[in-house]
């Protein structure tokens, strides 16, 4: 008898700085994703508590940063000086990811300014080293699920947590995120 094992080769990895919600906020995001999926009649699956995050700055190439790039990203992260802040998402919207796949996201106004400032600091320092990220501008958001559905933004009960650190993540589709580094914000 021969045992065969299904081996799936992971898709391209992406590397990015992110904010991770605490356990309570991740659970609240998951409940909100399931409720919105039901209420809006969506078929996309919620990302799940281990995948919710707020992207801050992404490595520009799909093949990944390599050892030198990881060292650079770690060096930049160590120099960040920003006080802890509260992030609050109070709006749901869709971001187009192509005609077949749109992201249903939570975003906000003034409640995401701290995250936007952290993005700007990371982007400025990384660009000072001659690199260009996946995005030079950013409006912080948390993706709940992907679906074909599209909507105009609408208000929801806020989802908030206190941000005391940020992380460097390696992400492979359909795999758990791997945290490669974590940096505490000053004063936390």
Tell me about this structure.
- The longest helix is centred in the first third of the chain and has 18 residues, at 23-40.
- The chain is globular and about 45 Å long.
- By secondary structure, the chain is α+β, with helices and mostly antiparallel strands.
- It has helices at 23-40, 66-78, 113-128; strands spanning 14-19, 54-58, 85-96, 102-107, 142-147, 154-163, 165-171, 178-184.
- β3 (85-96) and β4 (102-107) form a beta hairpin.
Blueprint of the fold:
Elements: E1 14-19, H1 23-40, E2 54-58, H2 66-78, E3 85-96, E4 102-107, H3 113-128, E5 142-147, E6 154-163, E7 165-171, E8 178-184
Antiparallel strand pairs: 1-2, 1-7, 3-4, 3-6, 4-5, 7-8
Features:
188 residues; alpha+beta
Low-confidence segments, ≥5 residues, pLDDT <50?
Answer: 1-10
pLDDT averaged residue by residue: 85
Query: Which outline best applies?
Result: globular
How are strands sequenced across the largest beta sheet?
A: 2-1-7-8
Task: Summarize it.
The protein has helices at residues 23-40, 66-78, 113-128; strands spanning 14-19, 54-58, 85-96, 102-107, 142-147, 154-163, 165-171, 178-184.
């Amino acid at each position: 008898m021969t045992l065969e094992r299904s081996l799936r080769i992971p898709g391209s990895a992406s590397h990015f700085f992110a904010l991770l919600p605490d356990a309570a906020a991740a659970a609240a995001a998951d409940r909100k994703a399931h409720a919105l999926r039901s209420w809006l009649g969506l078929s996309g699956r919620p990302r799940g508590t281990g995948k919710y995050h707020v992207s801050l700055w992404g490595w520009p190439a799909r093949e990944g940063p390599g050892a030198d790039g990881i060292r650079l990203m770690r060096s930049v992260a160590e120099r960040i000086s920003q006080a802890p802040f509260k992030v609050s998402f109070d709006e749901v919207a869709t971001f187009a990811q192509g005609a077949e796949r749109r992201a249903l996201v939570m975003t906000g106004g003034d409640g995401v300014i701290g995250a936007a400032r952290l993005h700007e600091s990371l982007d400025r320092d990384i660009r000072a080293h001659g690199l260009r990220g996946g995005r030079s501008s950013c409006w912080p958001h948390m993706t709940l699920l992907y679906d074909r559905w599209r909507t105009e933004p609408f208000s929801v009960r806020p989802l908030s947590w206190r941000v005391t650190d940020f992380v460097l993540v390696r992400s492979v589709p359909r795999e758990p995120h791997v945290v490669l580094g974590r940096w505490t914000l000053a004063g936390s």
